[in-house]
Amino acid sequence: MIVYFGTSPRIKKDYPQAVKAIFKQVEKLGYQHVSEWISRVNPDRFYQASLKDQKKHFEDTVAGIRKADVCLFEASERSFSVGYWVNYALGMGKPTIVLSQKERNSFLVKQINPDRFFFVVYHRGNLASKLEETLEKAAQKIDLRFNFFLSSNLLAYLDWAAQKKGVPRSVYLRQLIAQDMKNNRDYPPKE
Are 6 and 85 in contact (CB under 8 A)? Predict the structure, then answer.
């Protein structure tokens, strides 16, 4: 599983051991980082970067979040940029984990759809177990993308039906599956 891990450089400056521990724990659990930027960034130099470098960082962050299966953010301090990236990741449909060493009683955090959003309060003693448990939960929320072959007959029909309904082919296929699930009395299977 590919993980995007980010935070603001200011948070990294205030919590360097925590950011380092999270980065290493993700690797220790066998996951792959999209980027090592957070482990390399110098907080003081970051805020003095040129407009060109800031733009590149923005573009790299967008690309990293898009590439990731799961997004992870350290937010022990309030940060506009972390909030923006959390919202962006959720908007992209990514399971998103926000770690904090402080309990947040935020109205906004309570309003976020809990299906793909995980807010975790941690401390040094429970970071490994909290991170492992939450990454496993987040992994269960990853959308599966798959490709398959269709005969020319089926493809022609799919093109025609999607065009007639005015939706992309993938939306049409998802709607067919959702309708079949709704009509199938045997689903979900009883254990």
Answer: yes
Give CA–CA dist 82/74, Å, rounded.
8
Q: How many Cβ atoms are within 10 Å of 7's Cβ, its own excluded? A: 27
pLDDT, tens digit, 9 for 90 and up, residues 139-183: 999 987 778 889 999 999 999 999 999 988 888 998 999 899 889
**What span, in angstroms and rounded, lies between the C-alpha atoms of 131 and 174?**
32
Helix 152-165 and helix 169-183, axial crossing angle in degrees, nearest 10: 90
Tokens representing 152 are 């020319």
Q: Residue 113 pLDDT > 70, yes or no?
A: no
pLDDT per residue as tens digits for the range 70-95: 999 999 999 999 999 999 999 999 99
Give the number of other Cβ atoms within 10 Å of residue 147's Cβ. 4
